[in-house]
Protein backbone atom coordinates (compact mmCIF):
# COMPACT_ATOMS: atom_id res chain seq x y z
CA UNK A 1 0.00 0.00 0.00
CA UNK A 2 1.28 3.48 -0.86
CA UNK A 3 0.87 6.61 1.23
CA UNK A 4 1.14 9.48 -1.27
CA UNK A 5 2.11 12.87 0.04
CA UNK A 6 0.90 15.89 -1.88
CA UNK A 7 3.58 18.43 -2.61
CA UNK A 8 1.48 21.25 -1.16
CA UNK A 9 1.09 19.61 2.26
CA UNK A 10 3.13 21.42 4.89
CA UNK A 11 5.66 19.65 7.17
CA UNK A 12 3.50 19.86 10.29
CA UNK A 13 0.70 17.96 8.60
CA UNK A 14 3.15 15.49 7.09
CA UNK A 15 4.41 14.68 10.60
CA UNK A 16 0.85 14.22 11.84
CA UNK A 17 -0.04 11.83 9.02
CA UNK A 18 3.17 9.87 9.46
CA UNK A 19 2.65 9.70 13.22
CA UNK A 20 -0.90 8.45 12.76
CA UNK A 21 0.31 5.70 10.45
CA UNK A 22 3.06 4.65 12.85
CA UNK A 23 0.51 4.51 15.68
CA UNK A 24 -1.74 2.34 13.50
CA UNK A 25 1.13 -0.06 12.80
CA UNK A 26 1.94 -0.28 16.50
CA UNK A 27 -1.66 -1.00 17.41
CA UNK A 28 -1.91 -3.66 14.68
CA UNK A 29 1.11 -5.30 16.29
CA UNK A 30 -0.65 -5.17 19.66
CA UNK A 31 2.19 -3.29 21.35
CA UNK A 32 2.11 -0.42 23.81
CA UNK A 33 4.27 2.67 23.43
CA UNK A 34 6.16 1.57 26.54
CA UNK A 35 6.97 -1.81 24.98
CA UNK A 36 8.23 -0.15 21.80
CA UNK A 37 10.36 2.26 23.81
CA UNK A 38 11.94 -0.64 25.69
CA UNK A 39 12.75 -2.45 22.44
CA UNK A 40 14.43 0.64 20.96
CA UNK A 41 16.06 1.78 24.23
CA UNK A 42 14.39 5.20 24.05
CA UNK A 43 11.93 7.01 26.29
CA UNK A 44 8.22 6.37 26.06
CA UNK A 45 7.71 10.12 25.65
CA UNK A 46 9.74 10.03 22.42
CA UNK A 47 7.42 7.40 20.96
CA UNK A 48 4.41 9.48 21.99
CA UNK A 49 5.84 12.64 20.44
CA UNK A 50 6.62 10.81 17.22
CA UNK A 51 3.07 9.48 17.01
CA UNK A 52 1.36 12.78 17.74
CA UNK A 53 3.48 14.69 15.23
CA UNK A 54 5.01 17.06 17.77
CA UNK A 55 8.56 15.91 17.02
CA UNK A 56 10.49 15.66 13.77
CA UNK A 57 10.70 12.08 12.56
CA UNK A 58 13.94 10.90 10.99
CA UNK A 59 14.19 8.18 8.40
CA UNK A 60 16.16 6.18 10.95
CA UNK A 61 13.24 6.43 13.39
CA UNK A 62 10.91 5.10 10.71
CA UNK A 63 13.29 2.27 9.81
CA UNK A 64 13.67 1.21 13.45
CA UNK A 65 9.93 1.34 14.12
CA UNK A 66 9.10 -0.63 10.97
CA UNK A 67 11.61 -3.23 12.14
CA UNK A 68 9.92 -3.54 15.53
CA UNK A 69 6.50 -3.77 13.87
CA UNK A 70 7.83 -6.36 11.39
CA UNK A 71 6.60 -4.47 8.34
CA UNK A 72 7.62 -6.71 5.45
CA UNK A 73 6.15 -4.77 2.54
CA UNK A 74 9.03 -2.64 1.25
CA UNK A 75 6.60 -0.32 -0.55
CA UNK A 76 5.09 0.68 2.79
CA UNK A 77 8.51 1.18 4.37
CA UNK A 78 9.75 3.23 1.41
CA UNK A 79 6.62 5.38 1.44
CA UNK A 80 6.92 6.05 5.19
CA UNK A 81 10.60 6.85 4.78
CA UNK A 82 9.74 9.40 2.08
CA UNK A 83 7.11 10.93 4.34
CA UNK A 84 9.76 11.27 7.05
CA UNK A 85 12.10 12.98 4.62
CA UNK A 86 9.39 15.37 3.44
CA UNK A 87 8.32 16.14 7.02
CA UNK A 88 11.72 17.66 7.73
CA UNK A 89 11.25 20.38 5.13
CA UNK A 90 10.60 23.85 6.46
CA UNK A 91 7.32 25.74 6.31
CA UNK A 92 7.06 29.45 5.49
CA UNK A 93 7.10 30.36 9.19
CA UNK A 94 10.65 29.04 9.67
CA UNK A 95 11.93 32.06 7.73
CA UNK A 96 10.97 34.17 10.76
CA UNK A 97 13.22 32.22 13.11
CA UNK A 98 12.11 30.65 16.38
CA UNK A 99 8.32 30.92 16.73
CA UNK A 100 6.95 29.45 20.03
CA UNK A 101 3.64 28.37 18.46
CA UNK A 102 5.05 27.06 15.18
CA UNK A 103 3.14 23.76 15.52
CA UNK A 104 -0.13 25.65 15.64
CA UNK A 105 0.83 27.82 12.65
CA UNK A 106 1.56 24.68 10.65
CA UNK A 107 -1.87 23.27 11.48
CA UNK A 108 -3.65 26.55 10.78
CA UNK A 109 -1.87 26.90 7.44
CA UNK A 110 -3.32 23.60 6.23
CA UNK A 111 -6.73 23.77 7.94
CA UNK A 112 -9.93 24.05 5.95
CA UNK A 113 -11.89 25.60 8.80
CA UNK A 114 -11.24 27.18 12.18
CA UNK A 115 -13.72 27.71 14.98
CA UNK A 116 -12.36 29.95 17.71
CA UNK A 117 -13.65 31.37 20.97
CA UNK A 118 -11.84 34.47 22.23
CA UNK A 119 -12.71 35.78 25.71
CA UNK A 120 -10.17 38.62 25.98
CA UNK A 121 -8.96 39.94 22.62
CA UNK A 122 -9.90 40.12 18.95
CA UNK A 123 -8.81 36.88 17.22
CA UNK A 124 -5.37 37.11 15.64
CA UNK A 125 -6.60 36.49 12.11
CA UNK A 126 -8.94 39.48 12.39
CA UNK A 127 -6.55 41.96 14.00
CA UNK A 128 -5.24 45.13 12.37
CA UNK A 129 -1.47 45.53 12.35
CA UNK A 130 -1.66 48.42 14.85
CA UNK A 131 -3.87 46.42 17.23
CA UNK A 132 -1.56 43.39 16.98
CA UNK A 133 1.50 45.50 17.74
CA UNK A 134 -0.11 47.16 20.76
CA UNK A 135 -1.46 43.83 22.01
CA UNK A 136 1.87 41.99 21.73
CA UNK A 137 3.73 44.91 23.33
CA UNK A 138 1.38 44.85 26.31
CA UNK A 139 1.28 41.07 26.65
CA UNK A 140 5.06 40.61 26.36
CA UNK A 141 6.55 43.70 28.06
CA UNK A 142 10.08 42.26 28.14
CA UNK A 143 10.22 41.57 24.40
CA UNK A 144 12.55 43.55 22.17
CA UNK A 145 11.25 45.79 19.39
CA UNK A 146 12.67 43.32 16.86
CA UNK A 147 10.83 40.39 18.43
CA UNK A 148 7.56 42.32 18.52
CA UNK A 149 7.93 43.25 14.86
CA UNK A 150 8.65 39.61 13.97
CA UNK A 151 5.51 38.43 15.77
CA UNK A 152 3.42 41.10 14.07
CA UNK A 153 4.81 40.10 10.67
CA UNK A 154 4.03 36.44 11.36
CA UNK A 155 0.47 37.37 12.30
CA UNK A 156 0.10 39.38 9.09
CA UNK A 157 1.41 36.43 7.09
CA UNK A 158 -1.09 34.09 8.77
CA UNK A 159 -3.91 36.42 7.75
CA UNK A 160 -3.23 35.66 4.09
CA UNK A 161 -5.35 32.52 4.58
CA UNK A 162 -8.36 34.81 5.00
CA UNK A 163 -7.58 36.57 1.72
CA UNK A 164 -6.73 33.45 -0.28
CA UNK A 165 -8.81 33.69 -3.45
CA UNK A 166 -8.83 29.95 -4.18
CA UNK A 167 -8.95 28.17 -0.79
CA UNK A 168 -9.70 30.71 1.94
CA UNK A 169 -9.86 29.54 5.52
CA UNK A 170 -13.44 29.12 6.77
CA UNK A 171 -13.36 31.12 10.00
CA UNK A 172 -16.05 31.20 12.67
CA UNK A 173 -15.24 33.44 15.62
CA UNK A 174 -17.24 33.85 18.82
CA UNK A 175 -15.86 36.85 20.69
CA UNK A 176 -16.68 37.87 24.24
CA UNK A 177 -17.81 41.45 24.78
CA UNK A 178 -14.75 42.03 26.97
CA UNK A 179 -12.55 41.81 23.85
CA UNK A 180 -14.44 44.78 22.39
CA UNK A 181 -14.35 46.81 25.60
CA UNK A 182 -10.68 46.21 26.46
CA UNK A 183 -8.78 49.25 25.20
CA UNK A 184 -5.69 47.96 23.43
CA UNK A 185 -3.50 50.91 22.43
CA UNK A 186 -5.99 53.76 22.59
CA UNK A 187 -9.64 54.38 21.76
CA UNK A 188 -8.95 55.58 18.22
CA UNK A 189 -7.04 52.37 17.57
CA UNK A 190 -10.00 50.40 18.96
CA UNK A 191 -12.39 52.23 16.62
CA UNK A 192 -10.24 51.24 13.65
CA UNK A 193 -9.97 47.65 14.89
CA UNK A 194 -13.71 47.25 15.40
CA UNK A 195 -14.45 48.78 12.00
CA UNK A 196 -12.03 46.27 10.50
CA UNK A 197 -13.78 43.47 12.40
CA UNK A 198 -17.14 44.45 10.91
CA UNK A 199 -15.59 44.69 7.45
CA UNK A 200 -14.10 41.21 7.74
CA UNK A 201 -17.42 39.81 8.96
CA UNK A 202 -18.91 40.57 5.52
CA UNK A 203 -16.57 38.08 3.84
CA UNK A 204 -18.57 34.99 2.80
CA UNK A 205 -16.19 32.62 4.59
CA UNK A 206 -15.96 34.62 7.86
CA UNK A 207 -18.61 34.57 10.57
CA UNK A 208 -18.31 36.77 13.65
CA UNK A 209 -20.60 36.56 16.70
CA UNK A 210 -20.35 38.52 19.92
CA UNK A 211 -21.21 37.03 23.30
CA UNK A 212 -22.50 39.94 25.44
CA UNK A 213 -21.90 40.24 29.18
CA UNK A 214 -25.60 39.86 29.94
CA UNK A 215 -25.59 36.30 28.60
CA UNK A 216 -24.06 35.35 31.94
CA UNK A 217 -22.26 32.04 32.46
CA UNK A 218 -21.53 30.02 29.34
CA UNK A 219 -19.53 26.95 28.19
CA UNK A 220 -16.50 29.05 27.21
CA UNK A 221 -16.08 30.59 30.63
CA UNK A 222 -12.85 28.63 31.21
CA UNK A 223 -11.03 30.43 28.40
CA UNK A 224 -9.83 30.56 24.81
CA UNK A 225 -9.81 27.53 22.52
CA UNK A 226 -9.85 26.76 18.82
CA UNK A 227 -11.01 23.79 16.75
CA UNK A 228 -9.18 23.11 13.50
CA UNK A 229 -10.58 20.87 10.76
CA UNK A 230 -8.72 19.73 7.66
CA UNK A 231 -9.67 19.07 4.03
CA UNK A 232 -8.32 15.51 4.07
CA UNK A 233 -10.61 13.11 5.92
CA UNK A 234 -7.58 11.19 7.17
CA UNK A 235 -6.46 14.20 9.22
CA UNK A 236 -8.26 14.24 12.56
CA UNK A 237 -9.61 17.53 13.91
CA UNK A 238 -7.56 19.26 16.59
CA UNK A 239 -8.56 21.32 19.62
CA UNK A 240 -5.91 23.93 20.42
CA UNK A 241 -5.63 25.49 23.88
CA UNK A 242 -2.97 28.16 24.24
CA UNK A 243 -0.87 28.30 27.40
CA UNK A 244 1.69 30.72 28.82
CA UNK A 245 4.68 28.35 28.63
CA UNK A 246 3.22 25.46 26.63
CA UNK A 247 0.22 24.69 24.45
CA UNK A 248 -2.24 21.79 24.53
CA UNK A 249 -3.40 19.88 21.46
CA UNK A 250 -6.34 17.48 21.81
CA UNK A 251 -6.97 15.00 19.01
CA UNK A 252 -8.96 12.19 20.62
CA UNK A 253 -12.44 11.94 19.11
CA UNK A 254 -14.15 12.26 22.50
CA UNK A 255 -12.22 15.44 23.35
CA UNK A 256 -12.91 17.04 19.97
CA UNK A 257 -16.59 16.11 20.22
CA UNK A 258 -16.86 17.62 23.70
CA UNK A 259 -15.35 20.93 22.61
CA UNK A 260 -17.45 20.94 19.44
CA UNK A 261 -20.64 20.59 21.50
CA UNK A 262 -19.44 23.41 23.77
CA UNK A 263 -18.90 25.56 20.71
CA UNK A 264 -22.40 24.89 19.43
CA UNK A 265 -23.75 26.15 22.76
CA UNK A 266 -21.57 29.25 22.48
CA UNK A 267 -22.86 29.99 18.99
CA UNK A 268 -26.44 29.52 20.18
CA UNK A 269 -25.99 31.93 23.11
CA UNK A 270 -24.12 34.58 21.10
CA UNK A 271 -25.76 37.32 19.06
CA UNK A 272 -26.44 36.42 15.45
CA UNK A 273 -24.41 38.00 12.64
CA UNK A 274 -26.60 41.07 12.10
CA UNK A 275 -27.06 41.64 15.83
CA UNK A 276 -23.32 41.36 16.24
CA UNK A 277 -22.61 44.04 13.63
CA UNK A 278 -25.13 46.35 15.28
CA UNK A 279 -23.61 45.64 18.72
CA UNK A 280 -20.09 46.40 17.49
CA UNK A 281 -21.42 49.59 15.94
CA UNK A 282 -22.76 50.68 19.32
CA UNK A 283 -19.38 50.01 20.95
CA UNK A 284 -17.71 52.08 18.22
CA UNK A 285 -20.12 54.94 19.04
CA UNK A 286 -19.14 54.68 22.71
CA UNK A 287 -15.47 55.03 21.81
CA UNK A 288 -16.26 57.89 19.41
CA UNK A 289 -18.19 59.83 22.05
CA UNK A 290 -15.26 59.61 24.48
CA UNK A 291 -12.67 60.72 21.90
CA UNK A 292 -14.61 63.85 20.92
From TrEMBL:
Entries under SMART domains matching the protein: HTH_XRE
SUPFAM superfamilies xref list: lambda repressor-like DNA-binding domains
Superkingdom of source: Bacteria
Cross-referenced CDD domains: HTH_XRE
PROSITE patterns, per database record: HTH_CROC1
UniProt domain HTH cro/C1-type: residue ranges: 22-77
Protein name: Helix-turn-helix transcriptional regulator
Naturally occurring in which organism (per UniProt): Streptomyces gobitricini
